[in-house]
Design goal:
single chain, alpha+beta, NADH Oxidase, four-stranded antiparallel sheet, two-stranded parallel ribbon, 18 helices, 41% helix, elongated
Length: 380
């Protein structure tokens, strides 16, 4: 470094300008101890079992609730947002039952890679300008980004528990740069939800037991992405044709209509993932799955879990012509896929046709056998 060192205020102003050049929608700073309620909120969430299969949330909760436990040298946290708001209402595809609905954020390249690359560039800029040490995080470490973003003034956690911004609505990715530099923080944002409960009422599976509380075990995003086993039978019909994630609570947020668009970087959706046909998806083997979802967040859940989701959508489609695709998957190597295929067929075939098919099939896997038994009960 050469010349006179900038004041902390000038450094922060330059940092924010550099962030905008990199395509970030907004940038603000927060102290690592600025959100004292983090630990209690996380404790209640875990105590209620609302994290479901996400055991990583329960692992070392103190590390997640207190940034200083994650990294004792952190003095300031730079929080950044990236706008990924869609040009059209993503709920329109829910009426096209022969197509699969993929969440807006997953229709392009994996946002983890896109954001982390830019975070590293910005972090290197900060170190070159002012020294210190840094660590960057994008939804992959024990960092509670949403409350920290609220503490930085970038928005507030809405009743759907996601970050809401007066400038960008509910369509925001978050990233964080931890630094050893002591930088002036921004003022926290306060709640602007008021009496609105649109996001709560829009949830297809009633995943919000109360405003600002999410039971992930009922959330379609959790069920289609994080959940490893069969989808709970009472929630399958409510999933409709959502095969990866769910945008309903985000899309209905009234603050979206005020969202700015234009200069900030958005994620480009791939045409093949805008409204893929369920019959084509049902034919994907592992190689085809990896090829279609290369560089996509969808690839992380693996072909079997994805095929389970596709079969639930097929069962909800009302399209008898898709029964052949489900029947083909009765011989799949994965019992998770076979069980979902049985459920889909129990929904698409007549009771007599399903009973005839069941009479010709035998599956040694107990979960798949249970699906056949339950399907026969429904067909009776």
């Amino acid at each position: 470094m050469t010349g006179e060192a900038p004041t902390p205020e000038a450094l922060v102003a330059a940092l924010k300008a550099e962030a905008r050049k990199l395509g970030f929608a907004d940038c603000a700073l927060v102290r690592p101890d600025a959100v004292p309620l983090l630990a209690e909120r996380l404790r209640i969430f875990l105590a209620d079992g609302h994290h479901g299969d996400m055991g990583w949330l329960a692992a070392d909760p103190q590390r997640r609730a207190r940034p200083q436990v994650l990294w004792s040298d952190v003095r300031s946290i730079v929080m950044l947002t990236l706008n990924y708001g869609p040009a059209r209402d993503p709920r329109a595809i829910l009426e096209r039952r022969e197509r699969g609905a993929i969440s807006v954020y997953a229709k392009g390249d994996d946002y983890h890679d896109l954001i982390k690359t830019r975070l590293k560039v910005l972090a290197r800029w900060l170190m070159a300008r002012a020294g210190g040490d840094v660590k960057v995080f994008v939804d992959t470490a024990a960092v509670m980004e949403k409350p920290l973003a609220q503490g930085a003034g970038l928005g507030w956690q809405g009743k759907h528990t996601n970050l809401v911004s007066r400038a960008y609505g509910s369509w925001l990715f978050l990233g964080a740069i931890f630094t050893t530099l002591d930088l002036p923080p921004d003022a926290a944002e306060h709640d602007h939800c008021g009496a609105c409960r649109a996001c709560l009422d829009a949830c297809p599976t009633a995943a919000f037991p109360a405003p600002y509380r999410l039971d992930a075990r009922r959330c379609i995003s959790y069920l289609t992405i994080e959940h490893k086993g069969p989808i709970p039978s009472e929630l399958r019909e409510r999933m409709g044709n959502r095969i990866y994630g769910c945008d309903d609570c985000l899309a209905v947020c009234p603050w979206n209509k005020f969202a700015r668009t234009g200069a900030e970087m958005k994620l480009a959706a791939r045409e093949a993932l805008e409204a893929p046909r369920l019959d084509a998806l049902a034919r994907l083997d592992d190689t085809g799955f990896r090829s279609l979802f290369a560089k996509s967040a969808v690839k992380r859940i693996g072909r079997d879990r994805f095929m389970r989701n596709v079969l639930i959508a097929i069962g909800n489609s009302g399209e008898a012509g898709l029964a052949a695709e489900a029947e083909h998957l009765l011989d799949d190597a994965s019992p998770l896929v076979r069980g979902a295929a049985v459920w889909a067929l129990s929904r698409l075939l007549s009771g007599e046709a399903f009973a005839t098919l069941a009479g010709r099939r035998h599956d040694a896997d107990p979960q798949v056998a249970a699906e056949w038994s339950q399907g026969l009960e429904r067909a009776a």
